[in-house]
Amino acid sequence: MPEGNVVHRLARTFASLYAGQVLRVSSPQGRFADGAAVLSGRRLVASEARGKQLFLGFVPADSADAPMTGAVAGPDVLWLRVHLGLYGAWTFAGAPDAPEVVHAIGAPRRRIGERETTPAAPSSPVEPSSPVEPVGTRAWSVPEPRGQVRVRLLGDHAVADLTGPTACEVITSEEKTAVEARLGPDPIRDDADVDAFIAAVGRSRVTIAQQLMDQSVISGAGNIYRAEVLFRAGVDPLIPGRDVPAETVRAIWDDLVFLMRDGVARGAIVTTRPEDRSRQARPAEAARPVESRRRTRQNGDGTPGAVPSEDAFYVYHRAGLPCRLCGTPVLVKELAGRNLFWCPTCQT
Description:
Layout: H1 4-18, E1 24-26, H2 33-39, E2 43-50, E3 53-59, E4 78-83, E5 89-94, H3 100-105, E6 109-112, E7 133-135, E8 138-140, E9 149-154, E10 158-163, E11 167-172, H4 173-181, H5 194-202, H6 208-211, H7 223-233, H8 246-266, H9 274-277, H10 283-287, E12 331-335, E13 338-342
Antiparallel strand pairs: 1-9, 2-3, 3-4, 4-11, 5-6, 5-10, 7-8, 9-10, 12-13
Helix pairs in contact: 1-8, 5-8, 7-8
């Protein structure tokens, strides 16, 4: 499941591609036809992320142009709320003269989710799903939707397709506020309340590992950040939150702020310090069959200079491999339906 850093990158991408534009919204799959009809022809004026929730704000087309901002509310604003869940993904394609962000991400770019990849250019022109669209003085062929596209957003220079989301709905500003009220603070956002996070952890008997996955306690952290930040803090993941000193909980928060914002900037989750990556080459790991090593796909895979996925984590998906710091085999167990990874020696 994409973690908060991915959703924040998506929010920035929508702001860059569609700021202030009147969009055509459709549902090629048909399952969002009513919602698409409500939003189509409206102007996109807000794009924001809270944890794993993406909110796109639309106003009537005749509203005055407004910069992309999260400080938008009122009866005329309608929000497209999307939660990607386990299988959701956005696919983008851009015109030849699309804004630079399209080409910086990759044009076209397949899946901004757990992985982003740039496919090779097609050997023959893509058949348009609609007549050639004018873009300034040039024209481009809008590519045919691929797969079960729930929502398609078509702007002046780009098209975005959503497939497989857990949640996709049109809501009012009041309903958006109600959704946000159920979420814990988001370490990537400047308005996050760290004291609310510390208080929530400190009054619960639930393990610290479970609390870090609870979106009502903290928004945006997922299984990777949960495992890695607890390792970096040297905290046993199975102790109750109320038994973790408040100063340690604050240090965990501060580390998540650093790691998750870094994940937004680089487009991949990297939690290992440079000096620890070279410690991977141990005999036990080298002898492990390649087919038994589960590889975590990263957004930055294949990018020149990117940290390879196998070097990016301390414990996540490294069960049975030696800890990078002490050499003890990394443990894994199921906790509340998700695999938890930790080092029994470093995290005591």
